[in-house]
UniProtKB/TrEMBL annotation:
It comes from Oreochromis aureus (Israeli tilapia). This is Phosphoinositide phospholipase C. Residues 601-729 form the C2 domain. Residues 15-123 form the PH domain. The gene is plcd4b. Substrate binds at residues 432, 434, 514, 541. Ca(2+) 3 binds at residues 305, 334, 336, 383.
């Protein structure tokens, strides 16, 4: 182990960071304040405070950072570009939904030191293996607890540390472990001894038991014993022999064991805690699906009112909201366009106090970020409230800024009978908006036609009318459409939904309708099979009720069960609904497209989510989850001395019959290594549509349980056997090394 990461500390950029710098923290044009920043000795924590604020300071970890942007690369820094030159400016971008940190250095050299230094540290944290990560985690705790910074820890400090780490332990046991680790009998532990203490503390009896079941001598697993474990417990069949060999190569720390072709308990535990030992099938993490089917055959990760970072009435409109959604793999973003000053269209939530941003800036951001997370097409959904003049300006911006990225022509010059595939549209942006006439008609190039107002307004249902009293939204007014903008719409022409009967006989595959959540649910109830059939050929978009002014979300699973592809959610709002969205799209290389099950791609399908047992090939499965233990769960309440009482709940989301949840009992005062050993059983009628969510909560008999962590994944991506589930925060970001250890079996219902 390299306790202090010595090599990186020799880097001149890192030395500047460790010496500390005064950087200007910028929140707006008027809020610019000096703060003193420095990198702490652990090489991971960045500490900062105002020179004047007594003892108050803030810290964050390099592991919280995703990237460093150089120069004027944020709205805030662009707004002060005249005051501070680009070579002094940089932006620290955090994972998840945490806001950026915009900073201005005193000299270009200092800016470079921080930009390059932080990039190096981010790279280092991203390339650590499991063991280094754990060592680093232990090291962080050591530094946190070593109050007097003498590089040693006495028993009093260790007791405090155990509390910080969420461990309730009887004092005699803790002292016994402390004494065993204190080999020099000095009454305190240095870093190496502390690592030994931590190892004893985290010894996993439940892993040891599994190891013992397969190891003849109790010391190591020989190659054939490991093979047998992989075949019997991990259900790996044929490939067990080759895989056993690879696992020893990859995870066994002891060279001696490696030479014998064997695996020690340490190596075994490391394998179980790795990505390969995780619950998610590794082969489903990369792009593995057929991407050559029509767009209507895929679920598409989609965002609602993408420009908002907060609520729907007063929140801030921001380009960062587009960047965050696109980075999460979102493939359908929404733009509400209104007339702006000087013939420059703006984007905001009309008739509310949300702030405005320029349409051209949104399109530039789209160009920059559209294909960073995925190369498959992005649908730009335009809600158009602009005059014909400003629509022409919009069309110009779209053509000028996006150029060839914008798909403005038919792929083979033919009017399609079915939509093109994600594969054929790689790297392309599709405009979804109203269009004058269809792809079939040839219309006079100069005319400006009338089309009925935005299809969502035409759908104007009661919930919309009740919250948004604007005359535009209530009447099915005719609005003028500019020919220039209309011509840019090819495969996604917005139309008013005229019923399934009408769609069957008249609709074109490139016509797309939008449904509010209540309208979609009503249709699902009245004509489930019709809806599923309709969605095999055409795209449909669903969006949250107008009453959700707080930017809350509806359950997307209800819409996916109908085959709706573009299920738009408020990406800025963390919680169950976004967990499900992240869970579904975690597979297939996180590319934002997931192919629908075959029974939802056949135009003559008879599938109805309410009657799963009636479909051809119906094969229900039993899912049995033994929840064994938890590891290093984070503290929920930072109050000194408070320790969690964790319980695990497993929730199934899918067709109505599959919706279910069950939970373990809670364990008192142990967030460090709670053991449940309880089994939860479920029957899954439509496995192809089911999502499984694991939630850990802090039990509270007096009030609502507190959320600790969760992980959601498609049922079809589950690896059976002994698996670790690496928990995520409420925001969907990793919280290593917090995990659950489970044993999963999946069998046919007999």
């Amino acid at each position: 182990m390299d306790p202090e990461g010595s090599r990186i500390q020799d880097d001149p950029y890192i030395q500047v960071m460790m010496a500390g710098s005064t950087l200007r923290k910028v929140k707006s044009r008027s809020w610019k304040k000096n703060r003193y920043f420095r990198l702490l000795e652990d090489g991971l924590t960045i500490w900062y405070k105002s020179r004047w604020a007594g003892r108050g300071h803030s810290t964050f970890s390099v592991t919280d950072l995703e990237a460093v942007r150089e120069g004027h690369q944020s709205e805030v820094l662009l707004s002060i570009a005249e005051e501070f030159p680009a070579e002094l400016c940089f932006t620290l971008v955090f994972h998840g939904r945490q806001g950026n940190l915009d900073l201005v250095a005193e000299s270009p050299d200092e800016a470079q030191a921080w930009i390059q230094g932080v990039r190096k540290l981010i790279h280092k944290t991203q390339t650590m293996d499991e063991k280094e990560r754990l060592d680093q985690w232990v090291l962080d705790w050591f530094h946190k607890a070593d109050k007097n910074k003498d590089g040693k820890m006495n028993f009093k400090e260790v007791k405090k540390l155990l509390k910080m780490m969420n461990v309730e332990m009887n004092e005699d046991h803790a002292l016994h472990l402390f004494t065993m680790a204190d080999k020099s009998e000095s009454g305190s532990l240095e870093i190496e001894q502390f690592v030994f203490f931590y190892k004893m503390l985290t010894q996993r009896d439940e892993v040891w038991k599994v190891f013992q079941d397969y190891s003849e001598d109790g010391e190591k697993l020989m190659l054939e014993e490991l093979e047998s474990f992989l075949s019997v417990e991990q259900h790996e069949g044929e490939q067990s022999a080759q895989h056993a060999q690879e696992l020893i190569e990859r995870y066994e720390p002891s060279e001696t064991a490696k030479k014998q072709g064997a695996m020690s308990l340490d190596g075994f535990q490391m394998y179980l805690c790795s990505q390969e030992g995780s619950i998610f099938k590794p082969e489903h993490q990369d792009l593995y699906q057929d991407m050559s089917q029509p767009l209507s055959h895929y679920f598409i990760s989609s965002s609602h009112n993408t420009y908002l970072l907060e609520d729907q009435l007063r929140g801030q409109s921001s380009l960062e909201a587009y960047i965050q959604a696109l980075k999460r793999g979102c493939r359908c973003v929404e733009v509400d366009c209104w007339d702006g000053y000087d013939e420059d269209p703006v984007v905001y939530h009309g008739h509310t106090l949300t702030s405005k941003i320029l349409f051209k800036d949104v399109i530039s951001t789209l160009k920059e970020y559209a294909f960073r997370a995925s190369e498959f097409p992005v649908i730009l959904s335009i809600e158009n409230h602009c005059s014909v003049e400003q629509q022409k300006v919009m069309a110009q911006y779209l053509r000028q800024i996006l150029g060839d990225m914008l798909q403005t022509t038919l792929l083979d010059g033919q009017v399609p009978q079915q939509l093109p595939s994600p594969q054929e549209l790689k790297g392309k942006i599709l405009l979804k908006a109203k269009k004058i006439g269809g792809l079939e008609e040839y219309l006079d190039e100069t005319c400006t036609d009338e089309v009925s107002d935005e299809e969502e307004m035409a759908n104007c249902d009661a919930e919309m009318a009740s919250t948004e009293d604007s005359p535009e939204k209530k009447s099915k007014a005719k609005s003028k459409m500019s020919r220039e903008l209309s011509d840019l719409v090819v495969y996604c022409k917005s139309v008013h939904f005229g019923g399934f009967e009408h769609a069957r006989s008249h609709a074109k595959c490139y016509e797309i309708s939008s449904f509010s959540e209540s309208k979609a649910k009503k249709l699902a109830k009245e004509a489930g099979t019709d809806f599923v059939q309709y969605n095999t050929r055409q795209l449909s978009r669903t969006y949250p009720s107008g009453l959700r002014t707080d930017s809350s979300n509806y359950n997307p699973q209800d819409m996916w069960s109908m085959g709706c592809q573009i299920v738009a959610l408020n990406f800025q709002t963390a919680g169950l609904e976004m967990d499900l969205n992240d869970g579904l799209f975690r597979q297939n290389g996180c590319c934002g497209y997931v192919i629908k099950p075959d029974f939802m791609r056949d135009g003559n399908t008879q599938f109805s989510p309410d009657k799963p047992e009636e479909r051809e090939g119906y094969k229900p499965l039993r899912l049995s989850i033994q929840v064994i233990s938890g590891q290093q769960l984070p503290k929920v309440n930072q109050k000194e001395g408070s320790i969690v009482d964790p319980l695990v709940r497993v929730e199934i989301y899918g067709v109505p019959q599959d919706q279910a949840k069950d939970e373990t009992s809670h364990i008192n005062n142990n967030g460090f290594n709670p053991v449940w050993n309880e089994t939860l059983d479920f029957t899954i009628h439509t496995p192809e549509l089911a999502l499984v969510r694991f939630v850990v909560e802090d039990y509270d008999k007096a009030s609502r349980n507190d959320f600790i962590g969760q992980y959601t994944l498609p049922f079809t991506c589950i690896q059976p056997g002994y698996r670790h589930i690496h928990l995520l925060s409420k925001d969907g970001t990793a919280i290593p090394p917090s995990s659950l250890f489970v044993n999963i079996s999946i069998s046919e219902l007999t």
